[in-house]
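Q: What does the assembly look like in three dimensions?
Context provided by user:
Components: two
Sequences:
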Amino acid sequence: MRIYVPRDSAAKALGADEVASAVKAEALRRGLEVTVVRNGSRGMVWLEPLLEVETQAGRLAFGPVGPGDVAGLFEAGFGAHDKALGRTEDLPWMKAQTRLTFARCGIIDPLSLDDCQAHGGLAGLRRALGMTPEGIVAEVTDSGLRGRGGAGFPTGIKWKTVAGATADRKYIVCNADEGDSGTFADRMMMEGDPFTLIEGMVIAGLGVGADKGFIYSRSEYPDANAVLADAIRLARASGLLGASVLGLGPAFDIELRIGAGAYVCGEETALLNSLEGKRGVVRAKPPLPALEGFMGRPTVVNNVISLATVPVILAKGAAHYRDFGLGRSRGTIPLQIAGNVRRGGLFETAFGMPLGTIVDDLAGGTASGRPVKAVQVGGPLGAYFPRAVFGTAFGYEEYAAQGGLIGHAGIVVFDDSADMLAQARFAMEFCAIESCGKCTPCRIGAVRGVETVDRIARGDKAAIPLLTDLCETMKSGSLCALGGFTPYPVMSALTHFPDDFHTSAKEAAE
Amino acid sequence: MTSVGEDIAARVEEILRAHDGLEGPLLPVLHAVQGVFGFIPQDALPVIAQHLNLSRAEVHGVISFYHDFREEPAGRHVLKLCRAEACQAMGADRVAAHAREALGIGWHQTTPDGTITLEPVFCLGLCACAPAALVDGRVLGRVDEARLNALIAEVRL
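A: Here is the predicted structure of the complete assembly.
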């Protein structure tokens, strides 16, 4: 019997390790031969730990399972049980998705390259090995893939710049510094299907002529880092990485590096400085990292999801990927639904889904049962949206038009107990804590921002235009997105929820 | 240099040699040094600087830039509570206030008995099971006051 209990951090945080131990102990007690596979998460975090049993009819899901449920599940022969959910594939959350990037996540054993290949892994790389570098870059360009870290820059164009640069050495840097609150797609990919990320980096190396890759991950992700380290070791042992990729291509190797708790290192130039062993201070652009990146050499810096999407594009062709989506946002996006929601988790779908559908239908409203007040999309630099704009379709340009951004596609829901003035203050406070200090609008502006919000909270209405003016300065004068986009949550809170800024003024006056 | 200082220098030299050949090795080196000592001892700085052909000021600058690196030892257990938005939406501020009160310390402080250091963290990627915490590298989701009390009791044993 084969039983799956995820090793994903979210599942572990809800007791998956204890469930896995209970399954092994119960199997032993009953003298049953049970293989426990520690898979990635299917993305239904509200059902974690989600236990699955392999049967003739497919995988049957049970959840959320506690260690105390395990004996009963064995007793019921993994049949009728109040935790039984039916076939995993038939669950509405799973059926409604278009899983391209996350096709294997939660299904395979993340550290079995054989399992990965049995489910279509390395098909993209094998095709790429038969193509010219120009052909690989063209395929990625034609797919319409844009940077999933948030900036939305076309991946193929970036690759073309690096491919066209002349240097003794080029690099592929995977930005796995997923610091945005509400986002966990990178983590799930690294924990659930790390070989696909490795495959994407190898393809990038073939496309641009790089033989060295770095994954820059976070110290806040100890489990993901452990899986990645094992996956890289296994990839070397199997010849996926090394002197000749799969024995067919040129050399490519990957080194895992871990950050040290600085949010700003998710910004690509700060990341490069950090990787070089320096303070994670932002660099002015130009020069572009594509021309002068790591150690001054041409460097592709791509997000985990961008790179992990490359294999499916190569395997199924650019057109297959491009045919999904809306406007200039092509393909699929792994939505990460979080915060105060009934159903939180990862949902991969074509671009274009209205925010209201995500919040009301997928997430099922708030966990607290109270009305939804605001939704922050795109991490700490993303705007707070009220219900009035829930019709906005999920896409890069569509969110920009609403004074926001999709960022890394994290969606954080707040109920009506949220104080938007407090959220605006936090945005400034966070910017002040995490500012690298290089540019004045961010370094000083964020500190003044906290003070100004505090003045508004004390009832000083004259501070409101001051805050607006400060936000304008930060937006147009900052060197990177940290100072430049902190105005999004602040101004959206002020614009969409003016009562929270005036109520406090009224309370102070009373 | 004291004999303790010499011991530190020897261990740090060992770590540095193990990282020879890496491109931009300072962060991996600092992580390794902190992994061995629990913090970055002052005596390690000149050794690192010399080996990597940097100034002590540059090494100090890097250590002070990153939240993770400590110049003092932490308590026996490190409790990191997420303060970011998704956790806020599920009551993280309330839980954090409870933690500070229950432990009688503020952020970045260690209980007088040296048991627990309390630190803020901005996102553990556990945003769909918020509020989240990390205790000595172990992830925890849906942390409320009761779970926190149990946790504090557990690590204090």
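Follow-up: The first strand of chain B starts at residue 77 and ends at 82.
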